[in-house]
Design brief:
The chain has 25 helices and 13 strands. By secondary structure, the chain is of the alpha+beta class. The longest helix has 65 residues, at 320-384.
Length: 719
């Protein structure tokens, strides 16, 4: 949130307040199409309205409202599924306070998108009952289109596909003709595309130029890197099995693997599955299939070549949204069966609690015995399976495993972890709660209390003062970087790959986050109008990726001639990292070292082969986020090299006469110029964004007229 979403939101807000369309961010990745990147949907209506208010006020407010919208929508949907009010409350609490949502809180757009899921299903359910009602047709378009405007296209696509399946299932249950329902849904789909075209079209254009496009290095291996690992299954019961923050020892990117819905809701959902009924079939199938898809690289679907959602997307673990939804719905079903089968559930929960208590006891014994066998195990691996060590010395793994074991002793199922006791207490209390006369209230209260305690005690937070106060390292940057005539590179230690378990030395904790803030990681430097060379999120440009790979070697040494050519004027390095070769120290603080590079100018007059021409002048000045002016003085026709990202939509004029902008060295902008003294003006005019905006405005206008029509001309029932 601090490093990516808030800097983007500040940029959007600042540009909106001065009347600019923030299609281009000049301070990120040599310039980047910020709206097209879909990290935050610029046109998402709640955010558009909220940007009129202070960021510290509207962003938390919008998040809270979306949490309530998710809970309320889930409640109404469960009521539509014939659940009692108490069961609907339990199901809505389970989903809206689930680990999937809380762990993805760092992904602002995912939190916003997920709030629309139950509303989509509710409208689809009603539309299947009455497919000719205008209100439901319009509701389907709105609830499916708005998540696409919020950004992050993978989750809206998953949700839209699932809503489509649910609609046809319900339509079949009401014996509607498939041809009629198919026509209705095609109309809805076309309307959704039209309403969300303002986001979809520019994003698709960016996709073609990104590392995920046809010419990129995107493959299933990279796409599967955020698959749900099977050894994370204990987090179904122990939400912090792998710890959190500085104690986290599970797979890298903990945020992707949230699956906990609460001990009591999980127990109820498993019991509902155990007492299988025909009405459960769809939700059991959804939970099973979505979980298998979330396994990604370990999914059985790969055996038959099926990898839906991996075309241009990563993170198969996002399919867990449907697993979480299905388990919450099954929990509501299970709650309603308690009235007739309380004795059966007491036996089920009692057996589960004693089974889990036994597992915890055995695990704790193993945890404290394991360190004594570590050295023997590693020596065995070195002697018999040396390939597992991947060329590293045994002492590296010995130290890493010892640190992991230390974390395990404080987390996982260790009795030293309060989360272990919380789960055990919930399981042991459940049979007693069901025996009470007020069990219907106590179960809901206990489930809510557990989820609130977990969310409140395990989510790291950062103050608004930390976010909005400029870091000290800004003041020690070279003048060229501060004046935006050269760009910044941050060099940091990434640790090992974290393919199975994190590297304890590079865990994200308070100290590391403070260091990262001083390093001005992308997009943080852009928040303070410092230009950089990286885009920190998905859909990076393929041309950028090529140059970044060549810029540093595996040891972190900088290719200085290339850095100079790429307009890099400074390198920020943590104090504990070695000095990059061929670079001289410029300044140093307690938190960061600054190395200066003699960067080539932001704009330069060169020959066709790229050699600088003597006795020429090119003075670069940004006039807005998407426009620039360059004063030229040259005695011969030549090429103006502008070290900003080449991307479709950039236009140039020479003394107000149009001139083509062409790519130079695959990455930068070039304009053929004549001799003389004049001004070259550059302007970003994103054709696909303008086309999408026109289509979306027309579609939204028609949608609004449809709402008015539906309200004014309601069908009159005849007696």
């Amino acid at each position: 949130m601090r490093d990516v979403f808030i800097p983007l939101e500040l940029f959007f807000q600042q540009q909106l307040r001065i009347g600019n369309l923030p299609a281009w961010h000049p301070d990120v990745a040599w310039g980047f199409p910020a709206i097209a990147a879909a990290q935050i949907g610029f046109f998402y209506p709640p955010l558009l309205l909220g940007r009129l208010l202070p960021l510290w006020f509207y962003l938390p407010l919008i998040l809270v409202l979306h949490f309530f919208a998710l809970a309320w929508g889930t409640f109404l949907f469960l009521k539509k599924l014939s659940c009692t009010s108490q069961a609907a409350v339990l199901g809505s609490i389970s989903l809206s306070l689930s680990a999937f949502l809380w762990q993805h809180l760092t992904h602002l757009n995912i939190t916003l998108i997920l709030a629309w899921l139950p509303w989509q299903l509710l409208v689809a359910h009603r539309l299947a009952e009455k497919p000719t009602r205008w209100q439901y047709l319009l509701g389907a378009v709105v609830t499916i289109a708005l998540p696409f405007l919020a950004g992050q296209l993978q989750l809206p696509l998953i949700m839209a596909a699932f809503t489509t399946i649910y609609f046809f299932r319900q339509s079949r249950a009401h014996s509607h003709f498939f041809r009629n329902t198919a026509c209705i849904w095609i109309i809805i789909t076309l309307a959704v595309i039209a309403v969300s075209a303002v986001q979809l079209l520019p994003t698709l254009e960016l996709l073609l130029h990104s590392s995920r496009g046809s010419g990129g290095a995107w493959d299933s291996g990279r796409a599967n890197q955020h698959s749900f690992p099977l050894y994370h299954l204990p987090t179904l019961l122990f939400p912090r099995f792998f710890g959190t923050d500085s104690t986290y020892w599970g797979k890298r990117l903990e945020i992707e693997y949230g699956i906990f819905i609460g001990t009591i809701p999980l127990l109820l959902s498993l019991w509902a599955i155990w007492r299988f009924r025909p009405s459960h079939r769809f939700w059991v199938a959804t939970a099973t299939i979505s979980f298998l898809l979330a396994l990604g690289s370990a999914s059985p679907f790969r055996l038959v070549g099926l990898e839906p959602s991996l075309w241009y997307f990563s993170a198969p673990a996002r399919w867990l949204v449907l697993t979480t939804l299905s388990l919450s719905i099954l929990a509501a079903f299970g709650y309603d069966y308690l009235r007739q089968h309380a004795a059966s559930f007491r036996k089920f929960s009692a057996r589960a609690s004693w089974l889990l208590a036994t597992v915890v006891a055995v695990a704790n014994i193993a945890i404290y015995i394991a360190p004594h066998f570590l050295e023997r195990l590693l020596n065995y691996v070195q002697s018999n399976i040396p390939s597992l060590l991947t060329g590293r010395p045994v002492n590296y793994y010995e130290e890493k495993v010892r640190q992991l074991l230390t974390s395990i002793q404080d987390t996982s199922v260790s009795l030293a972890s309060p989360f272990t006791w919380l789960t055990l207490m919930m399981l042991l209390l459940t049979p007693w709660l069901v025996s009470s006369k007020r069990w219907y209230k106590l179960l809901i209260a206990a489930a809510a209390l557990e989820l609130i305690l977990i969310a409140a005690t395990s989510t790291p937070t950062i103050s608004w003062r930390n976010i909005l106060t400029p870091p000290q390292s800004l003041s020690v940057l070279p003048a060229a970087v501060q004046e935006k005539q050269a760009r910044l590179l941050s060099r940091r230690e990434g640790g090992d790959t974290g393919a199975y378990f994190t590297n304890p030395a590079s865990r994200a904790d308070t100290a590391l986050r403070a260091q990262q803030r001083q390093l001005l990681l992308p997009l943080m430097h852009a928040q303070y109008q410092i230009a950089g060379i990286e885009w920190p999120a998905s859909l990076d440009l393929q041309s950028h990726a090529h140059y970044r790979e060549r810029l540093q070697d595996e040891s972190g040494n900088i290719n200085t001639p290339l850095a100079e050519y790429l307009n890099i004027g400074a390198v920020l390095v943590p104090p504990d990292l070695s000095q990059p070769e061929s670079l001289s120290l410029y300044r140093e603080t307690d938190a960061v070292k600054v190395y200066q590079i003699a960067a080539r100018p932001r704009a330069e007059v060169v020959t066709v082969t790229g050699e600088p021409i003597a006795d020429t002048q090119a003075s670069y000045r940004e006039t807005s986020a998407s426009t620039a002016e360059i004063q030229i003085d040259t005695s011969q026709p030549s090429l103006l090299l502008i070290r900003n990202t080449w991307y479709p939509g950039w236009r140039a004029t020479i003394d107000d006469k149009p001139e083509a902008v062409k790519p130079v060295s695959e990455i930068f902008q070039g304009v053929t110029i004549p001799s003389g003294r004049y001004v070259v003006k550059l302007n970003y005019q994103p054709t696909w964004l303008y086309v999408g905006l026109s289509v979306s405005l027309v579609a939204s206008l028609l949608l609004g007229l449809g709402v008015v029509y539906a309200r004014l001309f309601k069908p009159v029932s005849r007696a």
